[in-house]
Amino acid sequence: MASDEPGVLRVPGGVTIPERELEWRFTTSSGPGGQHANKAATRAEVTFDIAGSSSLSSTQRSRLLNKIGPTITVGAEDERSQTRNRQLALDRLRSRLADALFVEKRRRPTKATRGSKKRRMDAKTQRGQTKRLRGRVRGDDA
C-alpha cells in the first residue's frame, strides 16, 4: 500500500508523516542466502520518533506515547530486495500506528426492555415446570 505522494507516509486516522521524520537503517539479512545475503544490506529498519514528531497533534502524540512509547522501530527482511523490504517496513509502521491511533466507540449502556424481562422470566418458569415434571410418578396405591 503505497502513499499518494512521494516522501510522505499517510496513516489512517488523519496522520501524515513526512519522510524526513523517519530514520532508516539497512543491514544484512539473517539466515541462509550465500554471497548475496552476506554482502547486500537488504534488511530495512525504520525508526519513528513519536515524542519529537512535529506532524502529530497533542492528542495523537499522547495516545501513541501511551500505547507504543517514545519511539517505534519496525524492520523487514522478508524479501531479497532492499526496495521491497523498505516498502514492507513502511506498511508495517503504518499498520502499527493505525492500530495505536484507533479509538473504540464508547458503549452506551442500555436497559433491558419490559418484554425481554417477561420473556426471560417465562422461559425460566417453563424450564422449572419441565424439571418438576421429571420427578417420580406417584401412583394411587402409594
Summarize the structure.
The chain is of the alpha+beta class and 142 residues long. It has a domain at 8-101: Double Stranded RNA Binding Domain.
Question: How is the topology of this model organized?
Answer:
Layout: E1 8-11, E2 15-18, E3 22-27, H1 34-39, E4 43-49, H2 58-67, E5 71-76, H3 82-101, H4 114-133
Antiparallel strand pairs: 1-2, 3-4, 4-5
The first-to-last residue Cα distance is 82 Å
Number of helices: 4
CATH architecture of the domain at 8-101: 2-Layer Sandwich
The percent of residues in helical segments reads: 25-40%
Give start-end ranges of low-pLDDT stretches: none
On the 0 to 100 scale, the average pLDDT is: 88
Fold-level CATH name of the domain at 8-101: Double Stranded RNA Binding Domain
Report the order of strands and helices.
EEEHEHEHH
Question: Mind describing the biggest β-sheet?
Answer: 3 strands, antiparallel
Number of strands: 5
Judged by helices, strands and strand pairing, the structural class is alpha+beta
The CATH class name of the domain at 8-101 reads: Alpha Beta
Large-scale geometry: elongated
**In angstroms, what is the radius of gyration?**
30 Å
Query: How would you write the strand order of the largest sheet?
Result: 3-4-5
What share of residues are in beta strands?
15-25%
